[in-house]
Design brief:
CATH architecture: 3-Layer(aba) Sandwich
Helix content: 25-40%
Order of helices and strands: HEHEHEEHEEHHEE
Number of domains: 1
Number of strands: 8
Structural class: alpha/beta
Strand order of the largest sheet: 3-2-1-4-5-6-7-8
CATH topology: Rossmann fold
Oligomer: single chain
Largest sheet: 8 strands, mixed
Strand content: 15-25%
CATH class: Alpha Beta
Number of helices: 6
Shape: globular
Radius of gyration: 17 Å
Distance between the termini: 37 Å
CATH superfamily: NAD(P)-binding Rossmann-like Domain
Length: 243
C-alpha cells in the first residue's frame, strides 16, 4: 500500500530521499495539519511533542475528528498519520520540548508561545548551526494571517536575523480575541507552505548531492500571507537564493 500511495510523485527529486528523522513541536492548529501533510510525502520517522489534549473547541481550526476529543494531541496525530499515510514510523511524546530534549536535524515548530520557540531554536542551533544537512521551519498562525520562517543550518544570515528580529518576548506578540484565533483553512494553508519549503530543501539537497548543475529551488527565509487582502511577502537570504 505504501508504494501505491506514493506512486503519483515517485519521480519527484524530494521523494528520492526518505528515512529522515523529523521532529514536530506542537500539534495544535499548525502541527496537526502539518503532521498529515508531511506524512504524505514519503516514509520517515516522526517525533511528535505536545503536552495538551483535544477539546471540542479545537475542531474550529485543528485536524481532529469528533471521536478524538479527549485524546492527547500527539496520539491523535499519530492515529491520523497511521490511517492516512501508512508506512511512516511515528513516536509520540506527551510533553513539551525542553532544554533536555534531544533535537533532530530536521525540525518544525508549531508552538503558540515565544518561550517555547526560543527553547526549540536554541537547542537545535546549539547542535546543528553550520550543518548543511539541518533545517528548522517555524510557523506562526493567527485567524487570518500566517508567517513561515526558515533557518538552514549553514545560513549565518538567517540565524542572525531570526535571533534579532523574530525571537521577541510573548508580551510583544499581538493578542487576539479568543473567539477569533484560528481557522482550519488557514491552518491547512500554512502546513502546505511549510511542507513546500521542506520539499524544495530536499530537492536542492538532492541536486547538490547528485551534482546536478542546473536547479532552481527557492528556500525563502521569510514568507507571510494575509487572507484579508491576499497579500504575500517573501524574503530570501543570499544563502537561500536559487542557484
Amino acid at each position: 500500500m505504501n508504494e501505491e500511495r506514493t506512486t503519483r510523485f515517485s519521480t519527484a527529486p524530494w521523494f528520492k530521499q526518505e528515512g529522515f528523522r523529523i521532529s514536530i513541536i506542537g500539534l495544535g492548529g499548525i502541527g496537526s495539519h502539518l503532521a498529515f501533510q508531511l506524512s504524505r510525502i514519503g516514509t520517515h520517522k516522526f517525533y511528535l511533542y505536545d503536552d495538551d489534549s483535544y477539546e471540542a473547541v479545537n475542531m474550529a481550526g485543528q485536524f481532529v475528528t469528533s471521536g478524538q476529543i479527549g485524546m492527547s494531541k500527539v496520539d491523535a496525530a499519530k492515529m491520523n498519520m497511521d490511517n492516512f499515510s501508512p508506512g511512516n514510523r511515528v513516536f509520540t511524546n506527551n510533553g513539551r520540548f525542553t532544554t533536555s530534549t534531544p533535537p533532530n536535524k530536521i525540525m518544525f515548530g508549531g508552538m503558540d508561545n515565544m518561550e517555547g520557540r526560543k527553547i526549540v531554536y536554541e537547542k537545535w542551533a546549539e547542535a546543528f548551526k553550520g550543518n548543511k544537512e539541518a533545517i528548522y521551519i517555524d510557523g506562526r498562525l493567527s485567524a487570518d494571517e500566517f508567517q513561515v520562517i526558515t533557518i538552514q543550518g549553514a545560513d549565518d544570515e538567517a540565524h542572525k536575523r531570526y535571533t534579532e528580529e523574530f525571537l521577541f518576548d510573548s508580551s510583544q506578540a499581538e493578542q487576539l480575541a479568543c473567539t477569533f484565533k484560528q481557522t482550519s483553512f488557514l491552518a491547512a494553508q500554512i502546513a502546505s507552505v511549510m511542507t513546500g519549503v521542506f520539499t524544495n530543501w530536499l530537492s536542492k539537497r538532492y541536486a547538490e548531492n547528485e551534482m546536478i548543475a542546473s536547479f532552481t529551488y527557492n528556500i525563502p527565509f521569510f514568507y507571510s500571507f494575509n487572507s484579508n487582502n491576499f497579500l504575500q511577502k517573501i524574503e530570501t537570504t543570499s544563502y537561500g537564493v536559487p542557484t
